[in-house]
Each structure stands twice: as structure tokens, then as C-alpha cells.
Amino acid sequence: MLELKQVTKTYASEGRLVTALNHFSIQVAAGESVALIGQSGSGKSTVLNIAGLIDEPNGGEVWFEGRNLTTVDQKHRSIFRRDQLGYVFQNFHLVPVLSVRENVMLPALLQGKKSSEAARDADFFLHRVGLKGFESRKPYALSGGQRQRTAIARALVNRPRLILADEPTANLDSHSGQQVCDLLFELCAEGQSALLFVTHDPGLVPQANRTVCIKDGRSA
Amino acid sequence: MTSTIVKLAFKNLGRNPRRTLVTGGGIAVGAAGILLLYGFVHFAYWGLAERFARSGNGQIQIADGNWFRSAVPEAHRSSKANLEVVADKVRAQLGDQVEALSLRRKVSGIVSTGSRSEIFVGTAFDPATYRRISASVSVVAGKTLSPTEPQGVILGRVLAKRIEAKPGDNISLLVTTDRGVPNAMDATVIGISASDSKELDAVSLTLSLPLALNLMETDQVDSLAVGLKQTSQTMMAEQKIDALLQGTPLETRRWDELADYYRSVKALYGRIFSFVELVLFVLTILAVANTVMMALLERRAELALLQAIGMRRHQIAAMIVCEGLGLGFGAGLTGILIAFAFSWLVQLWGGIPMPPAPGSSEGYRLNFLLDYRGATMVLGIAILSPVIASLWGSRRMVQSNIATALSGGIRSLVPLLLLPVFFGSATPAAAAGLNPDARLRLVDSLRAIPDDNFILQTTFMPLGEKNSNPIIYRVAGKGDRYLAIAISESAGNRMVILSSDAGMWMQKQGMRKPMRISPSQRLLGQASTADVVNVRWGSDYFAESYQAPTLRLVPKSTTAAAAYSKIELDFPADSLCPQLARFYARSGKLLKIANYEYQHKAGKLRLVSAIIHDAIRTGDKTKVIFGEAHRADLGANLFNPQNLIGAAHEIEAR
């Protein structure tokens, strides 16, 4: 479903050229969950950013369901992110002026769904992540775990074909982290979506179908 | 989708009400200023127009076409009888619109009292209609022209003074007739007139038309003046008169075509007004652009998030422009209301007394003539300024790299920051590679106190002059609520403190009811030390600016949670851990200073202690040592102000 072919990413930092990814390749099949592990700065998040089309590689290609996404224009990149992708960010990135429900509704509204339909979908996923009763709260009134679960509900509301999660349990205690991961694996299996996630949590790695270790921008 | 964008835009306007109010207020004041300037200029135009038209000139004059065009107009006068016929037709055609009609004839010569003589430039009118067609002429002594006194004349104030004439005096008028022969007639001074111009008053003489025609031995007159009730009806009336005059040598001229002084004043004021308007417009755009850019920079990660979840660039730009539109429309309307209210008050007061204009002898009372055209123009400017600023900002924002923006980096951000630098306000955290917002997020991640269900032990060690025993608190936290129990105190002296967004309460063993700690108490003494420790940076405060080494935070709202009007965090060079924090009261007074210590724990840098100095009772300082937090399942009932002692027992038991 998702394939990164010989992807290279370099950027300038403090006057030096840093290679974040060096001819890195990975494949993730539909319904498969892949854990991406490696030390800090090894390039894990860069893989997710490039796979999620929010960053551009300097070399190599990104393929999704037989289509080369490296060459598509901004408009189609946005449409891909909107329709095919669910992204769980490490820092939640919830919109502070919107309620929990409105945050989750946002991708559905962007897809052109009616407000009532988007609210129904949002409530469905909020219930799935255990946030029933929190729909009208603002993000600042939530705990870290609740924010993370809101971000997961937002990533899933359009039932994406590809789910990318950057350390989804980093801000959670082990119990909440396990709950969140169970949910991601379950929803991934239900919808035959591909799940690619970055983690430092050793307890989470065995639960993935496959593990890819990345070191200095290369598959280790 | 459009409704989502509009809804988001309006929610964003309410994100920082203080900033929205300040920006909107700036636009509103600018809009009101421009509209009042417009009103002042148009009042001046209106005053000049009315004074000209109602000084015997009428709003329209009818005469032979060559009389208007020729350098020798006296060769192209019209007969009195012809123009009288035209006057009848005009009166019939215009009906109620006509205030008065009068034939006019210019006469010049010498006026003499016998002992003193001066040159005069006179205008003759139909005495029956003179009062109505010359309503704005001020007769300061005596009376005005009347058919019952055909020999009566009105002298200009300065002319009367020069020849030492007063109402009732007999004078002689000496002229050269149209045939070129000298002629003289006696007349009686019946009034003295005064205008804005001393020069005009030095030669002005007004007489009745029969007297003038007898004096000049002719039946030739210059023109027919048509005075209208409403000057605004001039164009329509002119069209009707033009239709009447078709096929005759007679033509019409409007007051604005005849009033050279009005035209030159209007041209001058128009230039000045356009220039001031342009300056105000540019200043408003720059001021608004600065605020809009700062607001967008703070939301950079959020805008990137919207792009990351599929919002198209033009949709984000539309949302930002919509914010500008909403702000401009609201502020513009407010500015218009302010201007109309001010104008109304000035009108109630009878106008603002003004000194005489250059060349005038009389002062006047200033009013503002506001109309829908001015209001529409001002609303357009008020909307345009934030929209232009937003367009510019949104273009920059959506062109930046999403991943970089999400991580809070500054790549491709430098052009955005030029404006703040130009205004000398916040400068970028370029040296450290982080914008203020991202820096604040990192500081938040260093907090000793987690966000969710936890219990930890905290030791408060007084270090000041009054060295007393340390107090150990067990702190339980759930979301925004904290419960602190002083477990080091004896059982009978134990104090419990509850802190939440709703306020702060304290209860000691033995007290029947909890005591609510007021906002001012909260900022003093031990309570404030706890408050300083509990500050949730990112939740309650915005990163306003970073100017090395200081990150400045301002409250997001005026809720109890954001107790300080300003917090400054100082960073050592090349470090992202604040070493020192200064907390300020709403009055601007420095309340507390905190020094922080960090240690690596389980691979992560964590805040382990803080020394908090009381800036009001200098010398008082407390070291707060944070223990390890552990997760705990805490029920919401533990954080009830009415159950503090019960909650304390439960927490202690864990």
C-alpha cells in the first residue's frame, strides 16, 4: 500500500548539512502495522513526515496504492492528506479554540461532509477512544492522555487508508498508552488500513506486525 | 466548507480578546478620524456653497452665453423684459423648488457723502426678493432693500466707515452710463452689511434694480439669479431650465461653476484630505499588519496542522482573510458609530468655535457633515487594511514547510519577522533557532508536575531570615486541579490547599469551613509560592515575544488560572531550560522571582527544584524540591472545596 523507495532527506542545521534519511526504503501493506524504532535523531519522524506528504524528500519516491506521490502538485497532496491519511502527532496539535468534538469533526468537514454527519462520525470515534461526555470541552480542559485520544479520534474520523502515528504513547502513562495502542491496532485491522508508527516504548514494539529499526537515516 | 472556514475565523478572533480589541480599537479610532476629517472638509464645502448661493448669486444664473464666456461681458447683457419672461417660465416650471428669483446688474462708480468719496462696486437686485435670495448676507445696522424704499442702498461695513456714512444718511452715486456719459443720483443709506472679507466690505454697495437702471440709463441687466430652497436640487433644476432655454442665446451656469473661491478651496482641501487619508490608511495597514503577523506567527504550528489534515492553501488563506474581514468590518462600523456620535454631540453643543479663516473677519462654528458616502468610504478603508495585512500574512504562512512549522522551527520565517523588527517590538528567537511559541512548548515539557492523575511529594524549605522548618506537601493533581496537604505538620495543624481554574481554597484541621483565598492573597506569601510552582505555562499564557535571553508570556484570558499580568523567563545562552522567571502583578509590580534547577532523570531533563524569592518582602525565599510523581487514579470528588479534610485523609492514606 505504502512504499518509500530510496528516500533521502537532508537539511541545513547551524550551518551544517545534516542527512536525516539516506536512501531509506520501507513498505507497509494494507492492514499491516509497522513499528519504526531507533535512537533520537535517527530519522524516524522524518520518515513519517515524508510518508504523510508534509515534508518533501531530496531524493527517492513515495508510492501509495500504485501511485507515485512524489510528483503530485500541492492541491493533490492536500487531497491525499485529507482523504487517505490519518496523522497522530506526538504533541497532539489540537486547535485550541475548538471543542473536542469540533477538533475531531474538522477533517470530515474538510472532506465536504455535512455538519450533522461530521458530528455523528466525530461522536462515534470519541466514544471509541473513551471520551464520551468530553465532547464540548476545550483542549485546555483535558489531560495529556485525553488530548492524545482526541488527536487519535481526529486521525481516524475519515477512516483513512494510512495511519501515521508519531510516538502516540509518549505523553501517556503505561495503562493509557496500552489503551491507545490497542485502539489503533484494532481500528487499523477493522478498516484494513496500514499503520506506521514511531515509538520508544519497548512494550509496544512486539504488538506490531513488523518492526523496522532506523539508524543514521538507514534501515538497520 | 465555507461555513467551517467562517466559523473558524470568528473563533480565532475571540482567541485573544485583548489583542483583537486593541487591534480593532486602533482601526476604529483610525476610521473615526478619517470620517470626522471627511465630515469637517464637507462641512467646509457645504458652508462655502451655501454662502455663495445665498448671497444674491442663487444656485443657478441665466444670462446670454457670451456674457459668461466673453472677456468683455458688458457687451453681452440681456434686456430686462426678456429675462423677466424667462423668470416667469422658470417659476412655473420649478414651482415649490424656487426660493426666489432676481435680476442682477453690476454697477461701479464713486459714492460720496459730500465730504468723503470712495470707489464702489455695486450689485443691483430686485428689492422685492432680495431678502430671500441673499439670506446669508449679514446686515449689521439698519435694514435691507425694500420696494418701498427704491432709493435705498446698503453699504459694506468698511466702505461706510471710510465715507463716514450711517443708516439714514444721504449720499450721491456717480457712474459712467452704458452710453459712456457721466451720471449721478442721490440715494439713502438704509443698511450696513458685513461679509467674511474686509476687502469686499471696502467696496461693496447693494442697491435696488430700478435705481441702478435709472442711474445707468438702460434696461440691460446682467443675469437672472435662481435661488433654490435646496442646493442639492441644483443639477435637476438646471436640466429643467436648460430645456426651457433651448433655441435661445441664453445659457445657465451652476453656482459651483461661478464660484472661483469655492473651487480653489475645494481643490486645496481635496489634496490635503487625500494625502491625510493616504497616510492614515498606510499607517493603519502597517499597524494592523504587525499585529496580524504576530498573531499568525503564534499560530504557525496550528496553521500547519490544518494543512497537514488536508486543508488547502487557499482555504487557509480564506480563513485568515476572513478574520481580517470580520475584524475590519466590526472595527469600521464601530469607528463610524464613534464619528456619528461625536458629530451629534458637537451639533448639540452648537458646533466647535473656530477662529476666522485666512482672509476672513468672522470666526465660525465647526460641525461635521457626515453622510453615507463618507461612511462607506471609511468602512471600505477599515475592511481593506486588515484584509491586505491578512492576505500578505496568509501568503507567507501557507508557503512555509508544514513539517518545519509543526515542529516550531523558523526556516523560511525570516521575511515574516521583518515587520516586527521594523516596528522595534519583538525580535525573533533566530539565534536559538526557535520561535517564542515553540520555546514555550518546550518549557512546558520540563514541568515537574504532570498534567494528568498523579501524586507527588513537594518540600517547601524557607531560606529567608526567618529560617523555619521545611513543610512537606503531598500534592495530588487531576487536570487543572491540585490538592496539597501539608503532611509534615502535626495532625491537628494540618493544612489542605485546593487550587483549580475556579479559584483557591484552604482549610486547616479544626476549621469548620474552607476559606477561599482571594486573588490578592493568592499573589502573596506561601500561597503565591505554591501558585508560582503550579503555573501552567502553555495552557494559560501566550508566548508574546522572545528577545534573548527573555521569553515574555502574557495571559490568554483573565481567568483565575492566569494570575499574573506578565511572566518573563530568562534562558542561559544555548539552553532551552529557563533558569529564572519573574512574575508580575496586574499593576506591573514584580511579585516573585524563581530560579530553577534541572537534572536528567530516566533519560529526560526534568525540573527538580526551584528557589522562589518574594520581591515584595525582600529576603523571604523558599526552596521547593519536587519529588517523583507517580500515577494514581483520583476521583473528581477529591477536588471538592467542601470536602477538603476528607480528601486529605484519603490522599494521605495512599
Word description of this protein:
The complex is a heterodimer of chains A (220) and B (654). With 220 residues, chain A is of the alpha/beta class. Chain A contains six helices and ten strands. In chain A, helix 3 runs parallel beside helix 5 (144-156). With 654 residues, chain B is α+β, with helices and mostly antiparallel strands. In chain B, the strands form four sheets. In chain B, strands 15, 16, 17, 18, 19, 20, 21, 22, 23, 24, 25, 26, 27 and 28 form a 14-stranded antiparallel beta sheet that branches. Chain B has a six-stranded mixed barrel with strand order 3-4-9-6-8-7. The longest helix of chain B is centred in the first third of the chain and has 41 residues, at 17-57. Chain B starts with a helix and ends with a helix. Classes of the chains: A alpha/beta (220), B alpha+beta (654). The A-B interface holds A 14, 46, 49, 52, 54-56, 74-75, 78-79, 81-83, 85, 87, 89, 91, 93, 95-98, 106-107, 109-112, 115, 140-146, 154, 173, 175-176 and B 1, 3-4, 8, 11-12, 14-15, 301-302, 304-313, 315, 401-404, 406, 433, 441, 450-453, 478-480, 539-540, 631.
Are there runs of chain A of 5+ residues with pLDDT below 50, and where? none
Radius of gyration of chain B: 41 Å
**Portion in beta strands of chain B:** 25-35%
Helix content of chain A: 25-40%
Number of helices of chain A: 6
Main sheet record of chain B: 14 strands, antiparallel
Secondary structure class of chain A reads: alpha/beta
Task: Output the structural class of chain B.
Answer: alpha+beta
- Average pLDDT figure of chain B: 80
Form type of chain B: elongated
Share of helical residues of chain B = 40-55%
Largest Cβ-defined interface = A-B, 41 and 38 residues
Q: What average pLDDT do the residues of chain A reach?
A: 86
For the secondary structure, the number of strands of chain A is 10
Instruction: Give the N-terminus to C-terminus distance of chain B in angstroms.
Output: 51 Å
